[in-house]
Amino acid sequence: MKKFVVLILVGLMSAALLLSGCSSSSKSGSSKSGKNQFKGTVKLGISSWIGFAPMYLAEEKGFFEKNGVKVKLQTIQSASDRRTAMAANRIQGFFTTVDTHVMTAAADIPVYQVLALDTSSGGDGIVAKKDIKSFADLKGKKVAIDTSGGASYFWFMYMLDQNKMTMDDVKIVNMSAGDAGAAFVGGKVDAAVTWQPWLTKAEKTPFGHVLLSSDKTPGLIVDSLGLRKDFVDENPKLVQGIVNAWYDALDYAKAHPDEADKIMAKSMGQTVADFKATEPDVTFYDKEGNIKYFGTKSDPGLIYDVTDKAATFWKKVKLISKQPKATDMINGDFVGK
């Protein structure tokens, strides 16, 4: 009998300990699901594009740590590979164009754009024969362009829309942006959507000129930082730290241009002279620029229109099957703090 009583007492004690353990585990799990509990290094996918260079400056000068966040810039040259890495949570976010983030959201990978980095200020453009004097003059002309997606394609479609034209109004020749520039310089097409150095090369031909340059359309070809939605929702302080580090890097570059250019040129694998030569092709978004570009919920900035237009265009040309909404992809809570 005594043995039976002892066994009952042992069983009751074990059950109590088990329940206590479950309670403790539940509390621990609740703590981990709270705000700002991410303790590791935030990994961000990046490529060697000049518009991302100040992020390397922020890394080198310790601005991430200064703002309370550990960041590793992980080089992944392909935007699609960056997207795959974020979907697998191997990275928490990546840098790319606004229109490319639309493709990410359309692939059922929840993403928030939280920071605008740069806008093309002449690095992209449309070259054409000199008798083509306006965008409307492209009607019926042979235009070389990369139709696989990307900023150049989006920009061209945006300009078609602004001029009340469609892709059917021009004769599209599909090729990469570099090949498009070469084809124009070689006299094989009437116009081409391309980038530097082909814009300059086209102007040096006896028959070509730059019909439209991206410096005339600020805010359309823009790079932004997209982060996993769950990471943003759960770690607002870390997101704010990344945004503030970007602002600190831009301030530092203005105050110490020579040192900053050396650091950024090295990160791009360029000489300082080559880096300085390409710097005018982009305009970086500082705090004031971000506040204007994002706007407010009651008065949305240009990023909302660009995002929605990209979703519409990509769906129309069947590059995506689902059309995400800009309001579901943009979080402007951090740019003005």
UniProtKB/TrEMBL annotation:
Record has Signal as a keyword: yes
One Pfam family named in its UniProt record: NMT1
Listed GO CC annotations: membrane; periplasmic space
Keywords carried by this UniProt record: Signal, Transport
PROSITE patterns linked: PROKAR_LIPOPROTEIN
Domain Solute-binding protein family 3/N-terminal: 43-256
Signal peptide boundaries: 1-18
InterPro entries associated with the record: ABC_SsuA_sub-bd, Solute-binding_3/MltF_N, SsuA/THI5
Subcellular location: Periplasm
SMART domains: PBPb
Gene Ontology molecular function terms on file: ATPase-coupled transmembrane transporter activity
Keyword Signal: yes
CDD domains the UniProt entry points to: PBP2_SsuA_like_6
Predominant localisation class: periplasm
Family to which this protein belongs: Belongs to the bacterial solute-binding protein SsuA/TauA family.
Matching PANTHER family: ALIPHATIC SULFONATES-BINDING PROTEIN-RELATED, TAURINE-BINDING PERIPLASMIC PROTEIN
Name of the protein described by the UniProt record: Aliphatic sulfonate ABC transporter substrate-binding protein
Annotated organism of origin: Sporolactobacillus terrae
